[in-house]
Amino acid sequence: MLSAEENQLLTHVTGDAPMGQMMRRYWVPACLSEEVAEPDCTPVRTTILGERLVVFRDTNGTLAVVDERCPHRLASLALGRNEEGGLRCIYHGWKFNTAGACVDMPTEPGAFGFRDRMKLTSYPTHEAGGMVWTYMGPAADMPTFPEYDWMKLPRNQYAVIKSASPSTTRKRSKARSTHRTRGSSIRASSGIGRSAPKRRWTPRRKWKPRTPTTVSAMPPSACRCRIPTPSATSA
Ligand code: FES
Questions:
Q1: Please, which contacts does 33-39 make with residues 24 or more away whose CB atoms are closer than 8 Å?
Q2: Distance from the CA of 105 to the center of ligand 1, in angstroms?
């Protein structure tokens, strides 16, 4: 049986975890091609090795896998507008191209050059076998994309299926129905057909109107402001 340390070594992939660093030396699937089939389609949110990312296809058909959080105020770019050659944040309108460069910043005058210093994390992509793949490791160690034999088959001779992991499912179902469930499909995560958790009934407190307090009704001794009261000024 594995010790707790060995288990952690083999299963933790976020941050600098050794397993995560090893996985970052390979091309990994990001989403299905059909999810981003059209140029200017709706961006797809995904999490890979603990990193929150967004996949989108721009107007020219170029694919991108970028950080989900906008570098300005961390708004989610999964809610952004994919239009005219880039993904525009819906909060203040900063726009990023597939390489992660900021190409429009309506809130800052162009003369400041602030726009040129803004960069969104962007990973290389490759489309094959009905999937969008990405490489998240150091550029110097990037391997050539492995063209597996099955990827060369006609598209109607293989199937690609995407399923939610149990941990993702548990988190989603917890957020929606506040009780833990185990499941292996997205539908199971919706909580449909599951009974709500039992709660103890507690009577509501009776609402009482508050007594209005105005400054003029307040006695001078109760006032905490530093303006001298008339009595103190006259003394
Ligand atoms: S948060 Fe994205 S532009 Fe401000």
A1: 33/127, 33/130, 33/131, 33/132, 34/130, 36/63, 36/132
A2: 9
Using CA positions, which residue lies closest to atom 4 of ligand 1? 92
Provide the pLDDT for residue 25.
97
The b-or-e profile of 166-195 (16+ CB within 10 A means b, else e) is eeebbebbeeebeeebebeeeebbebeeee
Determine whether the shortest distance from the Cβ of 70 to ligand 1 is under 6 A. yes
Q: What whole-number distance in Å separates Cα of residue 214 and Cα of residue 227?
A: 17
Interval 122-167: pLDDT, tens? 999 999 999 999 999 999 999 999 999 999 999 899 999 888 766 5
Give dist(CA 56, CA 125) in Å, integer: 11
Lowest mean pLDDT among 113-127, 130-144, 186-200: 186-200
**Using a 6 Å cutoff on CB, does residue 89 contact ligand 1?**
yes
Sheet strands side by side (includes 27-32): 27-32, 131-135, 125-128
Look at residue 223 in the predicted model and tell me its pLDDT. 56
Q: Supply 182's token pair.
A: 């185990």
DSSP conformation class of 64: E
Domains of the chain in sequence order = 20-145 (2.102.10.10), 153-185 (no CATH)
Written as six digits, the tokens of 62 are 């170029």
Confidence of residue 60 (pLDDT cuts 50, 70, 90): very high
Lowest mean pLDDT among 20-34, 37-51, 136-150, 169-183: 169-183
Task: Give the Cβ contact number of residue 72 at 10 Å.
Answer: 16
